[in-house]
Amino acid sequence: MRIPTATYRIQFTPEFGFDNAKAIAAYLADLGISDLYASPIFKARSGSTHGYDIVDANQLNPELGTNESFDALVGEVQSLGMGWLQDIVPNHMAYTSENLYLVDVLEYGPDSSYTDYFDLSWNAPFGDRQERILAPLLGDFYGVSLENGDIKLEYEQNGLTVNYYSLKLPLRLESYTKFITQNLGKLTRTLGRNHPDFIKLLGILYILKSVPSEVAGKQRQDQIAFIKGLVWELYTTNDVIREFIDENIQTFNGEPGNSESFNLLDDLLNDQFYRLAYWKVGAEEMNYRRFFTVNELISVKVEELRVFNNTHSLIQKLVEDGTFTGLRIDHIDGLYNPIQYLERLREKTGDVYITVEKILELTEELPENWAIEGTSGYDFLNYVNGIFCQTENKSKFDKIYQNFIGSRVEYASVVKDKKHLILEKNLAGDIDNLALLLKNISSKYRFGNDFTLNGLKRAIAEVLTLFPIYRTYITPDGIGDSDRATIQEVIDQAKEQAPLLYHELNFIEKLMLLEFDNSLTQTEREQWIYFVLRMQQYSGPLMAKGVEDTTLYVYNRLLSLNEVGGNPGHFGISVAKFHTFNEQHQATWPHTMNTTATHDTKRGEDVRARLNILSEIPDEWEQQVNAWSAMNQGHRSDGFTNPYGVRHGFAMPDRNDEYFIYQTLVGAFPFAENEYTSFMERVKDYIIKAIREAKVHTAWLRPDSRYEEACTSFIDKVLDPSISGEFLEAFRPFQQRIADYGIFNSLSQTLLKITVPGVPDFYQGTELWELSLVDPDNRRPVDFEQRRTYLSAIREQVKTDILGLIQELLNDKTDGRIKLFLTAQLLQARTSYVSLFQDGDYLPLEVQGTYANHIIAFARREGNQTAIAIAPRFLTSLIQPGDNPLGESVWQDTHLQLPAGTPLTWKNVLTQQPLEVTETLSIAAALTHFPVALLVSSAE
């Protein structure tokens, strides 16, 4: 198995395709990257900016380049000795007319060859729901869209289609009879009853009415294609028939302003296998499984072996021919049976590097029976971020936050409230489906016969809301000890909080623990198991939407902690817990990925690094933020009644959103003055997304333009020097100090990522300062030419005058070259000592002396090689703004206690300087020239 030394995530888009990636491959190799980590590259919805809306997993995305350009990229990557880690998406596909598998289902219904591909109520076991497949893709109510003329019938060679802007859906065969017979008498008079083409048309009608219903599958599709071909031939060869069909199209499409004129099209649409609906309907009615709450992403039944084999055939081919040397699995928790999926994938792809996108809570462990190398790194992100938050100031930040917003907020309560909100407003239809399934099961038992659908729904909601992790992994083979403990803990809490649902909760517990009654038939056992596995598929989406996409925009005590996979209820993490985490990784998942930024993170890694500085200075932060608020009070808008009749009796933005805005400005404010104007626009775009995600005063389902405009107006005003000169004069010096100290946090974070157990992962562009906000802001184009130029110059000066280079970088830290230098030097060391960093033991080192709490240190040891990493933190109390944390004047007597047998001679691989030690190692000596250190020694 090829284990990456370091991965670099590339976001492929139509603007950055295979040719662009080829152009930067040599730069990545020079940086020290061993493996290109690619966003999904398979055929996606036209114009996709991320690639997760796949329409065909067995084709490369033509918008990224030709097959030849892909081959050229692969050739370049391989010539550089690099590998390719590919992000794959087994859980879902795009709900679009470009998805021909889905279009086939929508046209042929149960006769489609691909009905089993998608997670529909049609193919759900133990169900008899055959209602039309919901297509909640309209931008307005169905009736409004219809009578505005936005839904149109069109005819082309492939047949009749229903069109709504770019959406194009087919009509079922039976609809052709209704369409052709409309106004057929006029055609009879015009063409003549005995005209050969008219007779052909009558023959087509006869065939349409005579296709036997028992004909199904490929045979039926062939017959339909034959009929469509006959109609098209008449349309293209007979002008009268062409005019007849075109007039019918016009008739069916109705006339805006004449409601009755749309009856024909309405009737036709009601006959289809799908039901066009307003997109908001998907929140309360749903008969297919989605990715989270995204209507446009329909889930795939990859648990079906035929579906698995088909959707992974190209992936398998590219693994077998050596193109892909690793796979990253997107949204593993969405799958029906993740363990089965991973076993099949391992069998299909062999001994290839595999990681999964898996969100782990702080004390949760990855299942050890998974045939993978680890996760994509969110667990590391939150641990390394947490050690830069000064935990002893938790109570002060609680008080600052409480006083600023005027109320006391408990994180756990917010999580529960927001999960309930998502269940009620966004996942109601999905929970209805679970409740119906549970009702079907309970009605077969005398002790469950009295359970009502409403009671079961409330019980399911209570259980899902209290789930402390993304999901459990119960399978038909049984339940593990940790999953059993989780289920029992959740049920016990649910009984305390909802005692009236005691019996329903007991029943759910019995099912989830697979406590089968002896009297159950095999079919009934399978129905239990189906419910359990189905239930597990919804705890993850609820956690993602309730916590990541709602709570993290509402609970704003310290925004650096509000990150994917994080728990902002914990105010930082101790160094001891960080060491324990790394020791466990080395023992169980030594090749897991370690990341500090992804395409999904809530803010850039260096934004978090800055905001963690605030945790060190609570008193000053409180004074500053209160002063700013007082200065900007006049920029907040007065209350009003919104379009929904709700009175906003407060100034806008509200105090919580105002607090959010100030932290955002402190964290993301650019170093370069020429970015100021674009920054204002980026922040305004960001705040709209943030307050909609928060779902307090506005939301995606019910946008409140007045509140949104008040927030963007507030940002405009506070960042306008002609209006807010007093504020900016107070804000800018403070923000610049935070940014200066944040640089040292960023350097320490980079050191730790590259040297702890695991594979360091770099999101595109983060080798310089990464001050992005949430997507789409973090998917802006990267200036690779600038990075290439910087790196080339650094490489040259390292050879001739490394200490002079370091001094130059320290004198001008704002351009990011200092981070690039550190990254390149560390990756070079990691490449030179591959075995040490991939397989070496992890040894926490004891720090002693005056500033022991300000140093994180550990050793990596393998054979006769040892490396020591030293990362400072909490520097606001050690150095003045503008100073560097170097030398004895800063670190005084702080030192490391080295283990017995440790070598005496070391080399700092960052500065290339030698270092002699005794049984202790002076921090001042290690940090003489550069703010972090990596020392390497080979014992004699």
Summarize the structure.
Helices cover 46% and strands 14% of the residues.
Query: What is the molecular shape?
Result: globular
Structural class from helices and strands? alpha/beta
In percent, how helical is the residue content?
40-55%
Main sheet makeup: 8 strands, parallel
In which order are the strands of the major sheet placed? 16-15-14-5-2-1-20-17
How many DSSP helices? 34
Distance between the termini: 31 Å
Mean of residue pLDDT values: 95
| Share of β-strand residues | 5-15%
Model regions low in confidence, pLDDT < 50 over at least 5 residues: none
Number of strands: 29
Q: Rg from C-alpha positions? A: 31 Å
Describe the structure.
The chain has an 8-stranded parallel β-sheet. It has a 6-stranded antiparallel β-sheet with strand order 21-23-24-29-26-27. A 3-stranded antiparallel β-sheet has the order 6-13-12, with no helix packed on it. Helix 16 packs antiparallel against helix 18 (453-466). It is globular and about 105 Å long. The chain is built from 34 helices and 29 strands. By secondary structure, the chain is an alpha/beta fold. The model has no long low-confidence stretch (mean pLDDT 95).
